[in-house]
Amino acid sequence: MKKKICKCGCGKEVTWNVGKCIWNKFIHGHNNANKGNKLTKEQRRNISIKQGGNGVLKEDTEPPLCACGNCKEKVGWSGRGYWNKFVIGHNRKREDIYRELREQDPPLCECGCKEKVVWNKNRWNKYVVGHNARGKPISEAHKQSLLKANIGRPSPMKGIPLTEEHKKNIGLGNKGKIVSKETCKIISKNTTAFMNSSKNPNIGRKQTEEHKRNIAKGNKGLKRSEETKRNQSKARKKYLKDNPEAIIKMSLALKGRIGPNLGKTFSEKTKRKQSISKKEYFKDPEARIRNSCAQQGISREEWTHFVSCDPYCQIWTKEYKDFIKERDEYKCLNPNCRKISDRLCIHHIDYDKKHCTPWNNITLCFSCNSRANGNRKYWQEFYTNIIKNKYNYGR
């Protein structure tokens, strides 16, 4: 609040009247100093300057025209040492000028994005919202203050569906942007905390078949780089290692479920595509080694060679294999056989091709033999118990 000048013309500032809550008109004792005397022009000019005016007196200049631009009337004296801008009540006539300005085409954003700005009260904005800081470096202190200010604040875009054009613009804006490792760790930590919290709307929620089809449709044809695949694989392995209960949940969820391709007949075109895809995949030696490690249940560091290239024992002949099949009555001994294949083969229970004793061999169909290549510890124990119970081997 500006201090006022003593009305006696001395040019000194008056004090505040605490009892009446107003500024005093005079300094104590000055109220009778110029009683009956007129103030000189110099004294009045000094008072005008002290009160925020420009020192111009009323009789020195002609009154200017009203700033509304339409009436061409002269304005009145303010009493504070300057001429008014408008005739009383004419300041609203400015709205006609604003209306004409608003009807014009909006100017482009000054950041150079070529987007049009919006109207703000009585003028056009210079920037599109959020574009005023484009290209300007933000200090670390500013980043921290923004972060603290936005904690707990709901997103302004919550519940607003994004258009395809908006999504493309967001993607183009983030393309090539380098994110620091610290930022990645913060994002990962916050995402993990949200996914495991009660705020996650998908916890305990069963997705509809239509939703699943939409997800599959969205992921169809999506090609991920080898680096992305490796990162996803590492993240999944780490998650399953840190959460053993997740493996049990997955096992229970998949228990008794029949494969989606079971009983389906594929066209010759699809078979050729699958064959070409597998051949291209296994051209990479590392891919073959990874497949071998997965079948043997070992890590990449423990892998030494391809077990399938090892030679069989000396008694591994057609007569010996027929002997095992005759013993097993020429049928697959897996009680949970899916009855897909009629062709039979001899399976080594401990996966050692040189160990050809009768209690280490069992007759299986081609389908069950292929299934036994994965989760070897389970199948080894499973088929060992079948041989023991059927023929009393090892008892």
Quick synopsis:
The chain is mainly α and 395 residues long. The chain has helices at 41-50, 94-103, 140-150, 164-174, 181-196, 209-219, 226-242, 244-254, 268-281, 285-296, 318-327, 366-371, 376-391, and strands spanning 16-17, 22-23, 119-120, 123-124, 344-348, 361-365.
Task: Describe this entry's structure for a reader.
There is one protein chain. With 395 residues, this protein is mostly helical. Among the domains are: 1-61, no CATH class; 268-308, no CATH class; 311-391, no CATH class. Helices cover 39% and strands 5% of the residues. It has 13 helices and six strands. Strands 1-2 form a two-stranded antiparallel sheet. The chain has a two-stranded antiparallel sheet with strand order 3-4. Strand 3 (119-120) and strand 4 form a beta hairpin. The relative contact order is 0.03. The mean pLDDT is 81.
Q: What brief labels describe this structure?
A:
mainly alpha; two-stranded antiparallel sheet
